[in-house]
Amino acid sequence: MKQRFISSVPIVLQLALTTVGLTGQSYPGKPQIIRCRSLEKETFSCWWKPGSDGGLPNNYTLFYSKDSEEKIYECPDYLTSGPNSCYFDKNHTNPWTTYIITVMATNEIGSNSSDPQHVDVTSIVQPDAPVNLSLETNTSANLSYLWAKWSPPPLGDASSNSHVYHYELRLKPEEKEEWETVSVGMQTHYEVSSLKAGVKYIVQVRCMLDLGEWSEWSSERSIQIPKERLPPEKPIIIKCRSPEKETFTCWWKPASAGGLLTKHTLLYSKEGEEKVYECPDYKTAGPNSCYFDKKHTSFWTIYNITVRATNEMGSNVSDPHYVDVTYIVQPDPPVNITLELKKSIKRKPYLVLTWSPPPQADVRSGWLTLEYELRLKPEEGEEWETIFVGQQTQCKMFSLNPGKRYIVQIHCKPDHHGLWSEWSPEMFIEIPPDFRVKDMVVWIIVGVLSSLICLIMSWIMIMKGYRMMSFILPPVPGPKIKGIDTHLLETGKSEELLSALGCHGFPPTSDCEELLIEYLEVEDSEDQQLMPSHDTPIKNTKIILKETDSDSGRGSCDSPSLLPMKCRESRSLPSTLQTQDVRAKEKKVGKGSWDTCCAASTSERKTLPSGSIKSCTWLAAQLPSNQAAMFAYHSTVEAFKITLNTTNVNTSPVLVGNEESRQSLYPIAETVYDDLEKISEMECAKTDQTTVQVRQNEHSNKSPFLNPKLMDYVEVHKVRQDEEPTLLLKHKENNGKTKKCTVPGTSKEYTKVSTVVDHHILVLLPDQRSQNTPVSQESVAETSQNPPQSQAEKNTSYSTTTPSDSRRDTSGSDYMDPSSFMPSFK
Amino acid sequence: GLLLAALLVSHMLLTKEGVTSMPICPSGSVNCQLSLEELFDRAVKLSHYIHYLSSEMFNEFDERYAQGRGFIAKAVNSCHTASLTTPEDKEQAQQIHHEDLLNLILGVLRSWNDPLIHLASEVQRIKEAPETILWKAVEIEEQNKRLLEGMEKIVGRVHSGEVENEIYTPWDGLPSLQLADEDSRLFAFYNLLHCLRRDSHKIDNYLKVLKCRLIHDNNC
């Protein structure tokens, strides 16, 4: 079974092949008649190109008919003109007949015929090219002639060799492109004159019957036209050279030979000798040279050298060449070049070059002294650096660029005269990268960076030096009153203010430290509580938070650490007094709104740690002097304007609630409201977080109660240690009340406003422990001192503060030491 | 710090060098004489310099006055020192006895004493003679005298026996330098300079050979 199966495989394959073969077969392609040509108009031949054979052997049959007959003939002779051709011999050729010829290819499958070709014998005549072209030159009387001979084209039929051809000849010098064509006629030879001597010419001929076309050009023949027979030109002595100052060689350029054999002879005579010698050695130094060995070489002697070129026509002698061998020494390049990298003590690599003089040069005897020059460049470089090194045979190269590959070459020259040798072969040396340099670079970078950092640091120090200083070394605090408005001072009568205040240095903080808050006069009024906006609590809390955050960064004035200093004296006050103060306040605030305020204050007080602010004492603003009152008046006016300009708060609600006479002022108070509240809150926030919270609560509680009519203001005239602190509840109508109550000069107690609670309660405290309060309180106190004269007792005093506060928000904190105002009060 | 140290070290080296610099009279020298090597060194330097000057001068003159005049062809066999038979190639130079060679050098140098003096004066008469040529003529004349002195010293040191009679060849070329015909006069100068260049080179070459032979034992 298995065998049978195997044997069946080839059968299957065979079948497959045959089917493929069958499928690949087809009838033959269309043959094409290429040309028909008559060589001599008596016979003609046609050639065709077979089409595709269709995979099968094809038979080609040529049929022709004559225009005069209907009959179709087959080709008479398929053989004479070669494959795929048909030859019509004389008998089948009629020059007066047009032949219609087709070729049919036939195979097993089918047949295919070419397009018919119409042939007129006379129009297809083209003979073959002439043959047997031969050329000769002849020279007579110094003129060269060219004699060309050829034979007519051979014909297969020898008998028909009687045709008459016309011939053309063309010729050109070998190196040129353009042919010169000559019509020869019916001869089969031609003589060309006026040729150029010494030039090689190429000649071709072609022929034509009396009708038909020119034949192809015959095959080329060339011939050298001999030169005129002249003696040679002058040879030229090119140069003479001595490679080692012992022998020398001269070379010459041979004279142009003119086709004749020319012999060159070198002749020389030496200075001091009459005799002329011939070159001792033509061979050693190659063709066209003469070598003078040691015996024939003298120095400090001029050689007169000439070269004579001789041929059969004569000879020519070169110009004499005068040579003193001393001056024509050109050594060979130095040899044994070594490049070595060495490291100096500093580990910087340097290159040591050594070389030897060329072996031929005998420098040891002193007969020849060589000087050297070397050149080098980085491999990719363009310009060579050339270094003359004198007679030494070594050189050290420093300061090469590390990490680069250098090319080095050396050449040499005799000490005085002569020529530089050729450059020695290129030598390469790679300078290893210098790590020391890299280290240096790193260090330089580090140095630069660190100095940069230092610069930046110092710059920062300069820019923020004060803060940095205070951060590192907390400065001694100076008491300040926050809230003096520079704008106010500028626009108002600042001179008056200052003079009134009696503090000549402005800002007065530095001078007046000792006067620190003998009195704090605070006028609180209901106006402060006027028109709290509903969102104030929220605002306040935000602000408070901010303040607490940024407080530490403030200058000495703000710094909480200062406060104990300011308040040192007041610390002696017993806590009871403070509580009493608060109580007094409570008593005097009879109205419901005040109650709540008081409650708030007390609750606040309770929340505070025992050491911290327990009460805020406001000294009632004393306005005994007219000056102060005047000033206050002005300032309020100014402030009013400012507030009107700067703050676009709706004033109408305020007016409603406020007193008839003071209506104009209320808007100010109202506009101020927010700011003031903020300030007070901010200040209080500094004191303690708890207080802030308390106040916030109060705010929320109080907001419904806010009503201008309900508001009263409290003027704290004085808080004394020994006396009962008095808080006067002041009504707006009570002009001059404050005056009565205050005896500022005598009291030495320091009181401060710790907080302004709910804008109408001032938490006053003796200075002793209030760490965080003073700045804000001072500002309030300050502002409270400036009511207009006529309305000093009224809320207007409050209103004066407002612009400054608003100012403070925009322009940052301005601080006024309250003590600066004291003298005017005294 | 490193820099400072380097400075210090270099300073020390310098001072050390200063201390150990060659004394005027090298130890071991007789009568505070220069060694033969030193003498030869100086002589070679001098001859090198003289030849440098003379060949520069020749080139300048050639460029300026001799172009296209074919002086070189005429300048054959006309050096006044030609009568002194000097070695003409390396072998001759090596074969000649060093005393003879020294004498020859002396002879050539002496032979040039006179013409150099005249050259230095006559060269100033050349039309538009450049300063460089004038200066060189004077310089060569002076240096030639110095070299002659030095060579006499060397010869005195080297010579074992009696000093030979002073040999030199007289120069009678002064009239030619004063010829009225400019071309002839210029050729006279040309020839003189050409001979000077040749002889100064001879002397320089001989001295170098002698130095290598006597001082370095033919192993320069």
UniProtKB/TrEMBL annotation, chain A:
GO molecular function terms noted in the UniProt entry = cytokine binding; metal ion binding; peptide hormone binding; prolactin receptor activity
Tell me if Protein biosynthesis is a UniProt keyword of this record.
Answer: no
Q: Where in the cell is it found?
A: Membrane
The portions of this protein that span the membrane are: 440-462
Listed InterPro entries:
FN3_dom, FN3_sf, Growth/epo_recpt_lig-bind, Ig-like_fold, Long_hematopoietin_rcpt_CS, Type-I_Cytokine_Rcpt
> Where is there biased composition of kind Polar residues?
768-795
Q: What is its main location?
A: membrane
By its UniProt entry, which SUPFAM superfamilies does this protein fall under? Answer: Fibronectin type III
- Membrane topology type, per the record? Single-pass type I membrane protein
Family of this protein? Belongs to the type I cytokine receptor family. Type 1 subfamily.
Q: What is known of its domains?
A: The box 1 motif is required for JAK interaction and/or activation.
Describe the task this protein carries out: This is a receptor for the anterior pituitary hormone prolactin.
Which protein, by its recorded name, is this? Prolactin receptor
Lineage, highest ranks first: Eukaryota, Metazoa, Chordata, Craniata, Vertebrata
- Please name the gene that encodes this protein: Prlr
Automatic annotation (TrEMBL), chain B:
- Protein name, entry field: PRL protein
Q: Give the source species.
A: Passerina amoena
Q: SUPFAM superfamilies, alphabetically?
A: 4-helical cytokines
Which Gene Ontology MF annotations are present? hormone activity
In terms of InterPro entries, this protein maps to:
4_helix_cytokine-like_core, Somatotropin/Prolactin, Somatotropin_CS
Q: Which Pfam families match?
A: Hormone_1 (PF00103)
Do you know which PROSITE patterns this protein is assigned to? SOMATOTROPIN_1, SOMATOTROPIN_2
Source taxonomy? Eukaryota, Metazoa, Chordata, Craniata, Vertebrata
Family that this chain belongs to: Belongs to the somatotropin/prolactin family.
Specify the signal sequence span.
Answer: 1-21
Its annotated compartments are: Secreted
The alphabetical list of record keywords is: Disulfide bond, Hormone, Secreted, Signal
What are the recorded Gene Ontology BP terms? positive regulation of cell population proliferation; positive regulation of receptor signaling pathway via JAK-STAT; regulation of hormone levels; response to nutrient levels
Task: Tell me which GO cellular component terms the UniProt record holds.
Answer: extracellular space
